[in-house]
Design goal:
single chain, 225 residues, alpha/beta, Arc Repressor Mutant, subunit A, Trna Endonuclease, Chain: A, domain 1, 2 domains, five-stranded mixed β-sheet, two-stranded antiparallel sheet, 7 strands
Length: 225
């Protein structure tokens, strides 16, 4: 697709090694590619062609935007096919039960959710309210989707893939509490923060979900008309 595609492939292979995505500075450090106009051009071409997606940081801090490999087949190929072409029969049965496959499944579900934010907003019945979408992170917490609304509300969206209704245990409850606290402290926001949990089959209700989760969406939300 591209002339002089070696650097495009270097970017894709570097991004394939991480689930959370990389800032531009992290990408140059890990890929060894020099920062400059040529890197900007290669990234723009990969974004325009759908291989890579740029996710803005909360309040448009440009240097903190993250790039993620969002082409489904490219990531699957590099993760499972490229290194297993001559592995013989039953290779997929082995790979399908591995931690690597579970990690890939979580990333794939997260990517699908980020590609269907408009449907998520419709499911939340907030599509008529002006809002912006972004990510946010610091050294202690990471949020992959914030929906910052004009009605003084922020939906902090937590995306989890599990092959059954997801259960929030005490450790995960404390992790979610920390994310909310960190976001409030670092951004000094006065907006109401609503925890929105998006999972494949919804959330199993317990004491922790009742306290924290204001919105509970399953995969049907991604196809809301």
């Amino acid at each position: 697709m591209f002339d002089d595609s070696e650097r495009h492939m270097k970017i894709i292979k570097t991004l394939a090694n991480t689930n959370r995505g990389l800032t531009r500075n992290e990408l140059t450090a890990q890929s060894g590619l020099p920062s400059g106009g040529d890197l900007s051009l290669k990234l723009e071409e990969l974004v325009e062609s759908g291989f890579v997606t740029e996710y803005p940081f909360y309040r448009n801090r440009r240097q903190m935007s993250r790039y993620r490999l969002s082409d489904e087949y490219a990531r699957f190929y590099l993760k499972f096919i490229k290194g297993n072409k001559n592995s013989g029969e039953r290779t997929w049965q082995r790979l399908g039960n591995s931690h690597s496959f579970r990690s890939w499944s979580g990333f794939a579900f997260e990517t699908m959710c980020l590609k269907h934010v408009n449907q998520i907003k419709r499911s939340l019945r907030i599509d008529a309210i002006y809002s912006t979408n972004s990510s946010w992170f610091n050294a202690n917490a990471q949020v992959d989707l914030l929906i910052d609304r004009d009605d003084n509300v922020i939906n902090l969206c937590e995306i989890k893939f599990y092959d059954a209704p997801f259960t929030i245990d005490k450790a995960y409850y404390l992790n979610l509490k920390n994310k909310i606290a960190q976001l409030k402290e670092e951004t000094n926001t006065r907006k109401t923060i609503l925890l929105t949990l998006i999972s494949a089959f919804g959330v199993r209700e317990n004491q922790y979900s009742k306290e924290l989760v204001q919105n509970n969406l399953d995969m049907d939300a991604l196809f809301c008309e």
